[in-house]
Amino acid sequence: MRPGPSQDEIRRQNLGALLRHVHVHGATSRAELTTALGLNRSTIGALTADLVSAGLVSEGAPKETGRAGRPSLVVRPESTRIYAYAYSIEVDRLRAARVGLGGAVLDRREMARPRGLTATEAAPLLAGAAKEMQQAVPAGAVCVGTGVAVCGMVRRDDGLVRLGPTTGWVDEPIGPALGAELGLDAPITVGNVADVAAFAEHARGVAAGCDNVVYLYGDVGVGAGIIAGGRRLTGHGGYGGEVGHMKVVRDGQPCECGARGCWETEIGEHGLLRNAGRCDARGRDALLAVFDAANRGDARANAAVRQAGDWLGFGVANLVNIFNPEMVIFGGTMRDLYLAAAAQIRSRLNANALPACLEHVRLRTPKLGDDAALIGAAELAFERLLADPLDVG
Amino acid sequence: MRPGPSQDEIRRQNLGALLRHVHVHGATSRAELTTALGLNRSTIGALTADLVSAGLVSEGAPKETGRAGRPSLVVRPESTRIYAYAYSIEVDRLRAARVGLGGAVLDRREMARPRGLTATEAAPLLAGAAKEMQQAVPAGAVCVGTGVAVCGMVRRDDGLVRLGPTTGWVDEPIGPALGAELGLDAPITVGNVADVAAFAEHARGVAAGCDNVVYLYGDVGVGAGIIAGGRRLTGHGGYGGEVGHMKVVRDGQPCECGARGCWETEIGEHGLLRNAGRCDARGRDALLAVFDAANRGDARANAAVRQAGDWLGFGVANLVNIFNPEMVIFGGTMRDLYLAAAAQIRSRLNANALPACLEHVRLRTPKLGDDAALIGAAELAFERLLADPLDVG
Q1: What is the pLDDT of residues A241-274, one digit of tens each?
Q2: What structural domains does chain B harbor?
């Protein structure tokens, strides 16, 4: 346990707590802040005044309530003035967004990503999108950070992409490459796509208020963002959550990681297309075509989807026994598979998970949809501001 | 993020931090405490005085250093005055200990546990051991709590043992049963044996200073205590870490949990004895006999040990990919298996774990040995004192 903080640390912590509250919950009255933060009215007033001076929040009258009496002033995040850039590097596309304090996507760009594109090649494309968006930024607005979501294993200390089996990346320094293109000295925070999507869903999505969450994200491969005891599980180097490389079949199908029988060889893109007899196809559209065909009664597609669903339930049962989560979220292609094969998944889960671990688990799809990666990347960028609001801006 | 604490909360937090430091590290000079806790000398002096008044620590001259100058006073935990009772309910035995602040086992009792013994039957045996030990307690000594380690899934909120497949327990209220026997009103904290052993090794054992740890504990079954980001992973209900019920073989051997192909059916007691052709044997002695036979060149025993070692490596590789730990500890029968089949384990780990997840993993045996469960149970009991030292005693 750390010793208690100094007076100055307490003030910064309180400022961060207040700013985080309106960042996550939006406009909040002073009265509600008093209750939510457990601080008295004069402290809330002083903290708000500091944040107003720093241009991070504004105060104003609430919307008409129709009730009598003097209404409590409402504190709002300066959503158009304070923003972050968020990038998402996916198997088939690159995305860039400008996200305001409070989590709204203010502007966005998207482009196809040819498979095989390196970090050095991706950086100018992303930087170009940011420069385009920059032209529409109102005068006086302040960028407080940059976050990047990547399909791959990201080293926590410096954001190096150690391995992206699905992107072909090995030791790609996307942060520095992007910083050089953008002409930025400020740190660029890089995270694994499943981790940042879990972060976003936990902060302001379907898992808000849940302390123990497994967010499964699938594209070609499968990874998980884990929330344990209310905090992101990163592991020692930042590589935790590589559940797609949990072996489920001894001497099974070869995986792009070099081993055999990884879970993602059965539930990822390749496995599903292989079992549906479409070995030459690839990409999300090809996957969606299999789900469509299964829906329309194509026997082989249907069998492939059921088999993949059974394997999805098999692995989720293992994760339920290991993490005892209250929620499992199915994102990316795992969402499509979950919706197409819910019966197989539940049946396997009931057969394989321990009853005590299973009794409070809810299975859910993301609330933020595909935006989770962008919003999560922006959350990474906002973290520094929220930790110490007066030190940034 | 929570808002900052009040002055009183800060003082309690500082008292807890100081007491925890000497509890974990033993006698510490005021000068070292100043550095370790980042507090100034007068604050350390005032906090120490409070803890001395409460009878929790003592101050005195250090041992002779041979160096000139006035030595800094040394703060010591009151290890013989402040103690907790710790119990460990295992497959084959019951243990009870009196553990002093600072973590030393002051007294202990052990008895065989007939398999099948219920909580109601175990409670008087454990209480009897405590009453025996109580007679040797010096006048003025204070018991600050009671902790219990159990082979089984323990509900976090109330310590109910939901399921102990290896003890046959279902919904056994060991805490209340023991409290009634002991005539105690004070809360009795119950935890899973792997969780509390991990806690002990993390606090004062081989994993001290490690933030990401997997502690595997084996007896008939196999469970894990997980430390993630420096904190114990409990899961939503307290059932996290049930890695023994990770399925590794589809439609594999039947498990006592009702499913098939659980990891523990391959690496636990039953699997090893089955493969060694000793289906009628059971218990740790029978297991040790297999390891002995393998050492002496018995081909069947050797093959069984190698096979179990390979499966142990298979599952550990999955956990390494999922948790990215810096240390994996092998406790209970997993220690014996690890020592007997280290080559198979490392080979499988190298083949199956992702290189980035593997690069900083150290494989270790427990430093606290079999005492980890008792010391960890005592740590559970000390938690309340360390969280708020002046509120207990």
Answers
A1: 999 999 999 999 999 899 999 999 999 999 999 9
A2: 7-77 (1.10.10.10), 84-197+371-391 (3.30.420.40), 209-366 (3.30.420.40)
Closest residue to A229, CB basis, from B233, B318, B354: B233
Q: Tell me if residue B22 falls in helix, strand or coil.
A: helix
- Smallest CA–CA distance, residue B3 to chain A, in Å, is 5
Q: How many CA atoms lie within 13 A of A329 on its CB side?
A: 32
| Tens-digit pLDDT profile for residues B240-271 | 999 999 999 999 999 989 999 999 999 999 99
In this complex, do B234 and A324 lie within 8 Å of one another by their Cβ atoms?
yes
Residue pLDDT, tens place only, A42-88: 999 999 999 999 999 999 988 765 666 667 789 999 999 999 999 99
Q: For A161-180, what is each residue's pLDDT tens digit?
A: 888 767 788 888 898 899 99
pLDDT in tens, A222-237: 999 999 999 999 999 9
Q: Looking at the complex, report in whole angstroms how far the Cα of residue B210 sits from the nearest Cα belonging to chain A.
A: 9
Chain A residues closer than 8 Å to B325 by CB: 235-236
Who among A2, A38, A163 is closest to B3 (CB)?
A: A38
Say yes or no for a CB contact (<8 Å) between A236 and B325.
yes
Cβ atoms of B169 and B161 closer than 8 Å? yes
With residues binned 3-state (H G I as helix, E B as strand, rest as coil), the percentages for chain A, rounded to 5, are 45, 20, 35
Collapsing DSSP to helix, strand or coil, A157 comes out as coil
Q: Are strands B82-89 and B142-150 parallel, antiparallel or unpaired?
A: parallel
Residue partners of B209: CB distance under 8 A and separation at least 6? none
Q: Which of A307, A296, A301, A292 is nearest to A347 (CA)?
A: A307
- How many Å apart are CA A261 and CA B315, to the nearest integer? 13
Question: Whose CA is closest to B231, among A156, A211, A201?
Answer: A211
